[in-house]
């Protein structure tokens, strides 16, 4: 039972344009959401998070939007850079407390 | 000055063997985890420890036994390895033991291949 879904396995974007990565969740008890970035042969690294009391959080080129009614969040990267090419994991927690539930990831390729 | 380090990075072993993966964090965190990334690329939690005490134990076969000698170390021992154990195992740590508002820091992963 996938509680966190990233339905796009991959995304290709031109350098300088916006990258939008999407994530849907099914558990209405989730109240904290994160995005992690992962390069090949490395561990995931924390990128940005958002609490359910907000609908937007921004950090430099990265903005996460949360739509609770739709159980949807998205990560916007503007402008996209070749170094952003990586796998992006959406993750969520809440309800049963201590567990972070991850999506399957989206491969982002930024072409120069 | 790696924050979360795990060894070995790559491990190829035969079915039936027993192997261990070691993990150490120098972040001063109280909580450590083991995650497994399976063939479908999902990252799933296996165990978490807070100050050497087990707090999360997902439905993992008994062949997997975590051991935390101190709060900076969490080792994973796997007995009687099976083909299906082939995966990438990530060690991680965090300051908090609860998920809300918490940031988890991951190691680089250990690629286990059982042949």
The portion of residues forming beta strands of chain A comes to over 45%
Question: Which value, in Å, is the CA radius of gyration of chain A?
Answer: 13 Å
> What is the alpha-carbon Rg of chain B in Å?
13 Å
Please tell me the overall pLDDT of chain B.
Answer: 92
Structural class of chain B: mainly beta
By DSSP, the count of extended strands of chain B is 11
Q: Assign a percent range to the helix content of chain A.
A: under 10%
Taking the alpha carbons of the first and last residues of chain A, their distance comes to 38 Å
Count of DSSP helices of chain B?
0
**Structural class per helix/strand content of chain A?**
mainly beta
Number of strands of chain A: 11
**Helix content, binned percent of chain B:** under 10%
**Number of helical regions of chain A:** 0
Largest sheet of chain A: 6 strands, mixed
Helix and strand pattern of chain B: EEEEEEEEEEE
Distance between the termini of chain B: 34 Å
Most extensive interface, chain pair and sizes: A-B, 26 and 25 residues
Q: Outline the low-pLDDT stretches of chain B.
A: none
Oligomer: heterodimer
Beta-strand proportion of chain B? over 45%
Model regions low in confidence, pLDDT < 50 over at least 5 residues of chain A = none
């Amino acid at each position: 039972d996938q509680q966190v879904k990233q339905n796009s396995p991959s995304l290709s974007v031109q350098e300088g344009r916006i990258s939008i990565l999407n994530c849907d969740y099914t558990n209405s008890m989730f109240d904290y959401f994160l995005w992690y970035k992962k390069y090949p042969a490395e561990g995931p690294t924390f990128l940005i998070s958002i609490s359910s009391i907000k609908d937007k959080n921004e950090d430099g080129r990265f903005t996460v939007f949360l739509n609770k009614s739709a159980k949807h969040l998205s990560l916007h990267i503007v402008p996209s850079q070749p170094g952003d090419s990586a796998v992006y994991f959406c993750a969520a927690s809440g309800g049963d407390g201590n567990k972070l539930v991850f999506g399957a990831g989206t491969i982002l390729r930024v072409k120069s | 000055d790696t924050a979360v380090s795990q060894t070995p990075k790559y491990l190829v072993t035969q079915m039936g063997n027993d192997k261990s993966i070691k993990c150490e964090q120098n972040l001063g965190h109280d909580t450590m985890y083991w995650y497994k990334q399976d063939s479908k690329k999902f990252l799933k939690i296996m165990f978490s420890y807070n100050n050497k005490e087990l707090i999360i134990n997902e439905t993992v076969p008994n062949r997997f036994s975590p051991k935390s000698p101190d709060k900076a170390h969490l080792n994973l021992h796997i007995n009687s390895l099976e083909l299906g154990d082939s995966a990438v195992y990530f060690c991680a740590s965090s300051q908090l033991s609860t998920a809300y508002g918490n940031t988890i820091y991951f190691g680089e992963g250990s690629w286990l291949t059982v042949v």
